[in-house]
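User: Fold this; tokens only.

Assistant: Input:
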Amino acid sequence: MEIPRDRMYLKFRLYGFLKNQRFFDPFIILFFREMGMSFLDIGFLFSIREISTNILEIPTGIMADSYGRRKSMIAAFSSYLVAFALFYALPNFYIYALAMVLFAAGEAFRSGTHKAMILEYLRRKGLEHMKVEYYGHTRAASQFGSAVSSLIAIAIVFYYGSYRPVFLLSMVPYVLGLLLMLSYPKYLDGDIAEAKGRWSERMKRRFAYTVRDFRAMFVSRETLRALSNSSVFDGFFKASKDYLQPILKAQAISLPILLYFSGEQRTAVIVGLVYFFLYLMTSMASRSAGKFAEGMRSLTYAINATYFLGATLLLVSGISAALNIYYLAIASFLGLYVVQNLRRPMNVGYISENIPHRTMASGLSVESQMKTIIMAVMAPVIGHLADIYGVGVALTVVSIGFLLLFPITRVSERRTWTERT
């Protein structure tokens, strides 16, 4: 059965495209370095973002399930817009810390919520059996948006000769994203529990409903394994992925090309183009996640195999960067990005089988919360190691820890993929 390409399919894909128009993504570490931040400072900023996200994940997930997912998404885009304005206007570590908190609020309101809206739509349409492939298509649109964003980012940095304007211009697609959320149908808010009485009483009762469902999630050992496998991989990936940028910069500076441009312009062209092709690759990977899972022995086997492969690729990248073999480090990083985008739709599908649909936003927020804890711990560690020993050594040390966690995050081979569907 082919995926129905109706209006909501197009809106879901448009959301992913607009959401990923983050022109700062290919240059975030280079931007902070331009503003005079050490790798440790950058690690702390990332940690502030993730800790703030961690604190806000549960209440915002509850709000999404209790008061409506559309309102949660509108709040998310509003928080992003204020954060972008601060990053552009006030270059200061403490202002950036505040901007990171606001950015985290956007992440917390958004994380899990839009996925829950997609799953709610599929449930109502009787298409739950297509969740991996459907989510893969929407994620592919997101990755294609990132590819387009990379080309636009090249033009911005090349024209202005600075990374700073990327935050100002990122506000344009996010305003469009906010307007898109206003057009979503009300039924995607999900099943909101009715509760009478004063506001405080309603909040208390709805909180109790969600806590009850949270407890049910953690009864199953398989659910815990599913959440930890996904969150550990994504946490380590998020903590390390942006270090592709200084590796690319080192490669760009060493290449005897574009010598008539400034260092920033050369770096912008090389980094932007690599990220363009990178996101095209990850878009194809996300779109192929369903077929990839079907071609494997089972969904659990696919999840375990890609975890081990991703950790190994990060190790190769770290060792290569430490030895100044930049092309191999870059190639390994590209492979890691592809693996992560193959995994994500599979993880969402696997987790969704163990969480009640009514609290899907809250359940996915729990997974995201676990991920942000890992990211918050790892970001300063990587930054500190990078300042002292270099990026390559930092990535090597982290990847070893990544591999050592595999035995306790491995999901069990209970059912084959065909048995699941």
